[in-house]
Amino acid sequence: MSAEAQAPRALNGQAPDVFTPGGWVPMREYGEEEVDFLIVGTGAGGGTLACKLAEAGFSVVAMDAGAYWRPLEDFASDEHEQGKLYWNDDRIVDGDNPLKLGANNSGKAVGGSTVHYMMVSLRFRPEWFKSRSKLGYGVDWPLDWREMWTYYREVEEALSISGPVTYPWGPKRPRYPYRAHPLNGPARYLVEGAEKLGIQWTETPIATLSAPRGKAHPCVYRGFCMAGCSTNAKQSALNTWLPRALSAGAEIRDLAMAGRIESREGRVTGVHYRREGEWRFQKAKNVVVAGYAVETPRLLLNSASPECPDGLANSSGLVGKNLMVHLNQSVFGRTQDDARFYKAPPSLAVSEHWNYEDAGKDYHGGWCYMPPGPLAASWARLVAGKGLWGQDLLDEMHRYNNAVGLKMVGEVLPYERNQVTLTDQADEYGLPVPRITFSYGENEQAMIRHALGFMDQALDVVGITDRWQNPDETAHLLGTARMGSDPATSVVDADCRSWDIPNLWICDGSVFPTSGGVNPSLTIQAIACRTGDRIAELARRGEL
Amino acid sequence: MADPYPTYDVLAKRDSASWDDTTRAVVDRRLSLKVPEGVLSDTQLATLRMVKARVCPDPEGRPPTTTLAMVVQRIEEDSTEGFRHHELPRTSDAWRRGLDAIEAEAQLRFGSPFADLDGGQADAVLRSIEDGDVRAPEWESLPPSTFWTWRVIPDLVSCHWSQPSLWSAMGFGGPASPRGYVRIAENRRDPWEALEERSTSPTGWPRHHVR
Question: How many angstroms separate the CA of residue A322 from the nearest CA in chain B?
């Protein structure tokens, strides 16, 4: 269903209570009076920041193009139906390795992609924040890992992350708030393979509950994580940060698509957005763009004005550039055991060995690996990707319950040629359809070769036969509005404040200067927590 | 290969704790879906029916699927999925052009409508599209192997494996809410999961020496 055909729910002083079928919670409304902060996007970046800013006492309106779901009653146990959670609007992909978007990496719902993320909550390796100085590639972040370590902790506690007591890699960190989940079959192959190869592994720190928390029940191992969690065990922005934001006085506007940011004399004044079939304008003292690495540059570029003909915050020319993803290649094979990878969240075990070990690599950067758990249709698409169809495909699908695999999350380097631009085609809102251009470089090819070879070996040593490689998957979206220390080579500063326009902020995966070899949601939230604290501090000093 | 789960029917769980009302409504709607009329020409529809039968055959001994109706509905709604290969038009246009081109290819190669070809001939036509080795001029505005990889296969396969008959045939648990699973280690099975009929038994119980 198109967003235009749905009706908003967050209206008339109330928002959906995500913990109660048919329930409501009170919501403050600001009308269209000027608010302190207008946030575009309510995912890992915008949802988290909405909470932090509202709790700091600012007036906040957070809008999202997607719907405000109540998981307990709105989420079917069905991959196809849950396609409603993804950003399915038309986007054109090109380059040597055109990206798959939508279900793969893009959410369109209040809560953003965290509503359907895999919940893997890993911290960056400290050196990655200074990868140019310390590791000789990419670009340095303007952030210090020790400060990030405290913000990681804040997020881990806010989401009650389940994880191990001790973590095998990196500087000391406290035990995770909730106990680790038991391992499912596919995770146990990873463990056995890692031990045979003499590398370390751990239970994955993951944002699904291993014990009750408030009104949310522990995970019941349904395995439908990518299709949205119908029991609220998944700790998403939808059921963690946003309920807090509402209690603290934020307004959330669902089914509100931002089209253009208005600017005048070097400052932004508000956002034109479409809701209930008409264009409206919300005034704000500050605007935060948190639309993820395609929608964020799209909105900035589409907000070009005579003063800013190349788009807002774009004096560096880098808005939309340096788009990064993660390498997400995998190896699958067959076991004599009954493995059934549809049960429990995928990725319950992880090895970050190749994030922390650099010896012997013929490429820059790191990668980790985890066991995937594709459900029926996802598995069918993967198997069909081998070139199987007809009876061959049916036959291979009969062996679903004996399939196991390993999947990498690998660092992609920033290249200016990988980018988001605008086309002259219009979408259902009348906004320009974005074009996403992506190609691997030699570094990525070398990392893929190493990772596929290693994962193949890690399956071989535990007796997995008939192995095959899926060489062309990616995950996540990063870059396109990078943070940095120099206005000439970055879009925002360490506080996510744009260099060009002091009351325009960007807070999502777009600000990553490099991608790291781990899933990004924890880092996006940690940056948002830091940004919230910094904004409060700047306000105290009168520097907003 | 014979159906390994002949006694398993995911729909038998419909009224159990594995299914909630939301899911029941979704699957009921899917199973009662009729092929929308007036979306495709008779020839286009006949071609698509044959493409579906060759690429995604229904499993033997299982209730029929509504895969064809789902795909036609996608074409009718011109559904987008958030990314479109730059060489392809939108969903509806791509399918219409593609079906016409498949028909033209069949006429050129075998002098017969695609829908009237035998299985081997139809597969030969489809293989030529997959390989990009086509002759009909209709392909000039539609790169055949890109159409195959980015449109035909994902659409058909996604719709087909949204069908309970296919879930049953592969031993997939199907809907699981509010009840999920208790026994999640290898070689453990909850009573509401598929039982495989196999000549050799699994290699053993979970390996408890592994944490």
Answer: 19
Q: What is the pLDDT of residues A56-73, one digit of tens each?
A: 999 999 999 999 999 999
Among A346, A364, A322, A326, CA closest to A480 = A322
Mutation target among A209, A348, A397, A419 for the B interface, most CBs of B within 10 A:
A397
CA–CA gap between residue B139 and residue A502 (Å, rounded): 52
A360 phi-psi bin (left φ>0, alpha ψ -120 to 50, beta other): left
By the 10 Å C-beta count (0-12 exposed, 13-18 middle, 19+ buried), A309 is classed as exposed
pLDDT reported for residue B206: 62
All structural domains of chain A, each given as residue ranges with its CATH number in brackets, are: 3-540 (3.50.50.60)
Tell me which chain A residues have a C-beta less than 8 angstroms from the C-beta of B196: 338, 401
State the nearest Cα–Cα gap between A131 and chain B, in angstroms.
Answer: 32
User: Is A57 part of the contact surface with chain B (CB cutoff 8 Å)?
Assistant: no
Q: Is A2 on the interface with B (CB under 8 A)?
A: no
Question: DSSP states of A449-482 as a string?
Answer: HHHHHHHHHHHHTTT-EEEEEE---EEEEE-SS-
- Judging contacts by C-beta atoms under 8 Å, the chain A residues touching residue B153 are 381, 384-385, 389
A88 → closest Cβ in B30, B80, B153: B80
Contact assignment for A398 to B158 by CB distance below 8 Å: no
CB within 8 Å of A465: residues ≥ 6 apart? A333, A334, A335
Question: Nearest residue on chain B to A102, judged by CA atoms?
Answer: B82
- The CA distance from A499 to A492, in Å, is 5
What ipTM describes this predicted complex?
A: 0.96
pLDDT digits (tens, 9 = 90+) for A180-228: 999 999 999 999 999 999 999 999 999 999 999 999 999 999 999 999 9
Chain segment A289-306, per-residue pLDDT in tens? 999 999 999 999 999 999
Residues of B in contact with A384 (CB under 8 A): 153-154, 157
> Beta partners for A298?
none
pLDDT > 70 fraction of chain A, expressed in percent and rounded: 99
How does the average pLDDT of chain A come out, rounded? 97
List the structure tokens of B154. 């994902």
Is the pLDDT assigned to residue A268 strictly greater than 80? yes
- In SS3 terms, chain B reads as CCCCCCCCCHHHHCCCCCCCHHHHHHHHHHHCCCCCCCCCCHHHHHHHHHHHHHHCCCCCCCCCCCHHHHHHHHHHHCCCCCCEECCCCCHHHHHHHHHHHHHHHHHHHHCCCHHHCCHHHHHHHHHHHHHCCCCCHHHHHCCHHHHHHHHHHHHHHHHHCCCHHHHHHHCCCCCCCCCCCCCCCCCCCCCCCCCCCCCCCCCCCCCCCCC
The residues spanned by each domain of chain B are: 10-170
One-letter amino acid of B78: D
Q: How does strand A367-370 pair with strand A432-437? A: unpaired
**How many angstroms away from the CA of B180 is the closest CA of chain A?**
4
Q: Tokens 């978007």 appear where?
A: A101
Asked whether residue A391 carries a pLDDT value surpassing 70, the answer given is yes
* Residue B199 pLDDT exceeds 80: no
Q: Would you call A165 an interface residue with chain B, using a CB distance cutoff of 8 Å?
A: no
Q: How far apart, in Å, are the Cα atoms of A59 and each of A246, A256, A258, A260? A: 11, 18, 19, 21
pLDDT of residue B35: 98
Q: Read off the pLDDT of residues B7-41 as tens digits, 9 standing for 90 and up.
A: 999 999 999 999 999 999 999 999 999 999 999 99
CA distance A370 to A351: 7
Averaged over B84-99, what is the pLDDT? 98
Residue A189 structure tokens? 């192959």
Q: What is the arithmetic mean of pLDDT over B74-85?
A: 97
